[in-house]
Write a structure and sequence with these properties.
Elements: H1 11-18, E1 25-28, H2 35-44, E2 49-53, H3 57-66, E3 74-77, H4 84-90, E4 96-102, H5 107-111, H6 137-143, H7 146-157, H8 162-172, H9 178-189, H10 200-211, H11 213-227, E5 228-238, H12 241-254, E6 275-277, H13 287-292, E7 300-306, H14 311-315, H15 317-320, H16 322-328, H17 334-346
Parallel strand pairs: 1-2, 1-4, 2-3, 4-5
Antiparallel strand pairs: 5-7, 6-7
This protein binds S-adenosylmethionine.
Length: 350
């Protein structure tokens, strides 16, 4: 019997973009089945440390067993990455050399016959990443007004036929399973037209709404930037345009010294760049990777490096750089950690 698995997307590109080095400290905010995490741990050995986060307790179980060989170098926590800053403080995991987000769902979640993420299997309309969340997709489908549903399907699914779909859902409620919902959507739009199944966008919209995906992403990216040490890398792999837009806009904004609106003759914003873009153009999977792993087809990788924006820290750049830390084995020295915390507190972005 084949073991269910998830193939990590853009693996080599991710490790390169994170500039993983022996002795480094990394956070994988979307641990999943631990594929990227395993590669980070291999490359950061000896001495590397990894904090792995996943909202899904099943993912933590699977990754814990997969990463058993690295048990002394890992800390895996079942939390939502929206609380990244608090998690790092709680576990004293500061500062870090690299933070990874591989957004969305793992194949294990998509293939699950009980989680309700996919219309390939009949399952209760759930879609929660964590059982501790209160609201399921069925709650949204069955209790929202048709106007609210249409708005949600249009905004999070970028679905042009959102009103038609919402109207038909309204007529057929209660809807409790994935296949029932997929059938209602097919009827609403008159069957399949293009490459995508007509239910794809609505399922995406519901999943985003149930898990507050875009709000959490917006909130965590700023925290991640603030948690990175000098020259630390932020790497984000996204799978749809709504996620990618958030990542692209924030990285572009934070890599500019001035963000005044066009036409303002002299800068009045006082904004200072705290990131340097690593790849000016987005990185996408090769045709070979897409062929081997069709789920990678929509992946987009963006990466940026942390700059310290205060003069004082430019002067001390050598001391805060990765090479200085690893050669001095300074990551655990309380005095150095205290200094770095001060550095972070003076360069926080909001
Ligand atoms: C695409 S998978 C990651 C796969 C992983 N990189 C690997 O190679 O196995 C995304 C993971 O992120 C988790 N996730 C999504 N949003 C999250 C959030 N807000 N907080 C914590 N985990 C989240 C999902 O539960 C899922 O396991």
């Amino acid at each position: 019997m084949s073991v269910p698995t998830h193939i990590p997307v853009l693996l080599q590109e991710t490790i390169e973009a994170l500039a993983v080095q022996p002795g480094g400290r990394y956070i994988d905010c979307t641990l999943g089945a631990g594929g990227h995490a395993a590669a980070i741990l291999d490359r950061s050995s000896p001495g590397g440390q990894l904090l792995g986060i996943d909202a899904d307790p099943e993912a933590i179980k699977i990754a814990t067993s997969r990463l058993e060989a690295h048990s002394s170098s890992i800390l895996l926590v079942n939390e939502n990455f929206a609380d990244l800053e608090a998690i790092c403080i709680k576990y004293d995991f500061l500062p870090v050399h690299g933070i990874l987000f591989d957004l969305g769902l793992s194949s294990l979640q998509l293939n699950s016959h009980s989680r309700g993420f996919s219309f390939q299997h009949d399952a209760p309309l759930d879609m929660r990443l964590s059982p501790s969340q209160e609201v399921t997709a069925a709650d949204i489908v069955n209790t929202s007004s048709e106007t609210e549903l249409a708005h949600l399907i249009k905004t999070y699914g970028e679905e042009a036929r959102s009103h038609q779909i919402a109207y038909h859902i309204g007529q057929e409620r209660p809807i409790t399973t994935t296949l029932q919902l997929a059938r209602v959507i097919e009827q609403a739009v008159g069957g399949r037209r293009g490459r995508l199944h007509p239910a794809t966008r609505t399922f995406q919209a519901l999943r985003i709404a149930v898990n507050h995906e875009l709000e959490h992403l917006e909130a965590v990216l700023k925290q991640a930037i603030n948690l990175l040490g000098y020259e630390g890398r932020l790497v984000v792999i996204s799978y749809h345009s709504l996620e990618d837009r958030i990542v692209k806009q924030l990285m572009q904004q934070e890599s500019k010294d001035c963000i005044c609106p066009p036409g303002v003759p002299t800068c009045i914003c006082g904004h200072k760049a705290c990131l340097r873009l690593i790849n000016k153009r987005v990185i996408t999977p090769s045709p070979r990777e897409v062929k081997l792993n069709p789920r990678s087809h929509s992946a987009k990788l963006r990466a940026a490096e942390r700059l310290i924006i205060q003069d004082e820290y430019y002067r001390n750049a050598e001391e805060h750089s990765f090479s200085a830390h690893s050669s001095a084995k300074g990551w655990r020295r309380p005095a150095l950690l205290k200094k770095l915390r001060v550095a972070f507190s003076t360069t926080l972005i909001r």
